[in-house]
Amino acid sequence: MPRASDSAYSEIKSWIQQGEVPPGGLIDEAETAKRLGISRTPVREALLRLQTEGFVEIGRGKGIRVLPLSSTDMREIYQVISGLEVVAVSVLARSRPSSEQLETLFEAVRRMEKAIADGNVSDWGDADEMFHRELMRLSGNRKLYEVGCQMRDFALRAHMVALRLQTDEYRKSSTDSHAELIRSILSRSGTVAAECHFKQRLRGEDALVGVVDKFHISTL
């Protein structure tokens, strides 16, 4: 059974990631404890953990504020994630996986294709998130997966906003690129697969950060 502070941490982080508490918004410790049905101590522990991870800022006498991300922050986070994923792709390809071992990646692409057909941007974003987390998990490098997921957690709110600003054409092209990456991994050339993914990541970074700048969104 998870500790109360762990449960509070997961709940509050979800509120931040889903935009329930907007960038710059305040979190009231007492109200949060009441909402979660727990004492203030585990809520405080959770908030201190979220502050350490950069999600909130606990200001003396100024409340607990959700920290916003700028487009520069996004680009820097994407670059860290790209570095981790390129290594994951190289390791995974060199392990010579079978199609069956990559089934979760195939499933993510199928979900992306269905979301495009249904016109459901949120489902597409969820499937895209699944793909990238699975890509790191399948590398077998637990530390890489742990750090990569932390980075994706941190960027999730801003990432989803940027995805919603993108066009259907972008989502179709991105889905095709995800499928191409699976084929590249199955080719069993770690170098080729890593290079393929690095180029895809650069295009994605420019597109997502670019659309945020285009709409003059200063914080996410």
TrEMBL record:
Record flagged with keyword RNA-binding: no
Pfam families xrefs: FCD, GntR
Superkingdom of origin organism: Bacteria
Protein name, per record: GntR family transcriptional regulator
Residue ranges of domain HTH gntR-type in the record: 2-69
SMART domains the record matches: FCD, HTH_GNTR
Keywords: DNA-binding, Transcription, Transcription regulation
Keyword Lipid metabolism on entry: no
UniProt-listed PROSITE patterns: HTH_GNTR
